[in-house]
Write a structure and sequence with these properties.
Elements lengths: L2 H18 L1 H6 L4 H16 L18 H9 L10 H4 L8 H7 L5 H5 L5 H15 L7 E4 L6 H6 L8 E4 L7 H11 L4 E3 L1 H7 L5 E6 L8 H7 L3 E5 L1 H4 L2 H8 L2 E6 L3 E6 L1
Parallel strand pairs: 1-2, 1-4, 2-3, 4-5
Antiparallel strand pairs: 5-7, 6-7
C-alpha cells in the first residue's frame, strides 16, 4: 500500500472517529492514536458481543489485596531509577489503560487504581480467577510474557499455586538486577528468564495460560503461538488494532471472553 493511500485511509478513519466520539476527540486534544484504540476495541467487542463481560471485576472483589499492594509499592521504590522508569514508577497511569477507563467512566476506576499494577492487569486477575473457578486452569504453567518485575504474580499467588508461575522477559526495559531486587524484597521465588532459556528448561511442560500485556504483539506472537498454551490473555488494544494479529490467532485460537481492557483466547 502506497504512503499516500495510507494517509488517505488514516484521514478517513479520523473523520469517522470524530463523528463517533465528538466529545472525546476534543477532551483528548485530538489524540487520534488513543481514540483509534477505543474505536477498534469497540469494533472487536461488537463483533463478539455475546462474549463481552463489560469490564466485570466481581470475582476478585471477593479477595483482599491491600497488603500485596502496600508491600509492592514499598518494595519498588528503586524502580524510579530503572531503565524504563517512566513505566515502572507510574504503573497505574502509564499508557492508555487508565485513560480508557476514564473515557468509559468506569465505576471501578478508584478500585483499579488501588492496585500496584498496570490497569489491564487488574482485569487479568479477574479473568484468571474466573478460569480457576471453572477448573479451566489446573496444574499447567502460568506465564507472564513480558513479566517485568513480576508483580502480577504477587497478586495471582492469592488464589493460585505459585510453583506454576514463570516469567519471561528480555530485560531490555528492566534490568535483571532490578527485578531480582524487587523479587527478593517481596519474598518471591518466581523464575524470570529469557524466552530462549525458558524453552531450553521447560520442554514438554504443559502450559495453561500465557499473559501478555502492554507490548506490541508483533514482537512475540510467533513465540506465544509456539508455546501451545490452553489460554491466552492479551490487552485488547494490542489485538483489535492489528488484523495480522487477529488472523494469526484465529488459526489456532478463538475468543473466550473480552472487554475494553483485556481479551481471553481459548485454544480451538
Amino acid at each position: 500500500m502506497s504512503s499516500k493511500l495510507k494517509k488517505l485511509k488514516w484521514l478517513i478513519k479520523k473523520i469517522i472517529i470524530s463523528i463517533n466520539y465528538p466529545l472525546e476527540t476534543f477532551s483528548s486534544s485530538f489524540d487520534f492514536d488513543f481514540l483509534n484504540a477505543i474505536y477498534m476495541n469497540k469494533k472487536l467487542i461488537k463483533n463478539n458481543q455475546e462474549l463481552n463481560n463489560s469490564l466485570d471485576l466481581s470475582s476478585i472483589k471477593k479477595i483482599d489485596f491491600k497488603t500485596e499492594s502496600k508491600l509492592s509499592i514499598k518494595n519498588s521504590q528503586h524502580l524510579s531509577r530503572s531503565l524504563n522508569s517512566e513505566y515502572f514508577a507510574n504503573l497505574n497511569s502509564f499508557g492508555y489503560g487508565s485513560r480508557i477507563l476514564k473515557i468509559l467512566k468506569s465505576e471501578d476506576f478508584e478500585y483499579v487504581n488501588s492496585f500496584h499494577l498496570y490497569p489491564a492487569n487488574v482485569y487479568v486477575l479477574n479473568e484468571v480467577k474466573n478460569l480457576v473457578d471453572k477448573n479451566l486452569i489446573e496444574d499447567g504453567l502460568i506465564i507472564d510474557y513480558p513479566s517485568g518485575i513480576g508483580n502480577l504474580f504477587i497478586y495471582l499467588n492469592k488464589f493460585i499455586n505459585h510453583n506454576n508461575f514463570v516469567g519471561v522477559d528480555n530485560f531490555e526495559q528492566i534490568s535483571r538486577n532490578d527485578i531480582e531486587k524487587y523479587q527478593k524484597k517481596m519474598g518471591s521465588r518466581v523464575s524470570i528468564n529469557t524466552f530462549e532459556y525458558f524453552i531450553s528448561e521447560n520442554k514438554n511442560k504443559e502450559i495453561d495460560l500465557i499473559i501478555s500485556i502492554e507490548l506490541d504483539l508483533d514482537l512475540i506472537i510467533n513465540n506465544i503461538i509456539k508455546l501451545n498454551s490452553s489460554f491466552l490473555i492479551f490487552e485488547t488494544m494490542y489485538v483489535s488494532r492489528h488484523k495480522n494479529i487477529i488472523n494469526t490467532l484465529n488459526k489456532k485460537y478463538e475468543i473466550y471472553s473480552l472487554n475494553d481492557l483485556v481479551t481471553v483466547y481459548k485454544k480451538r
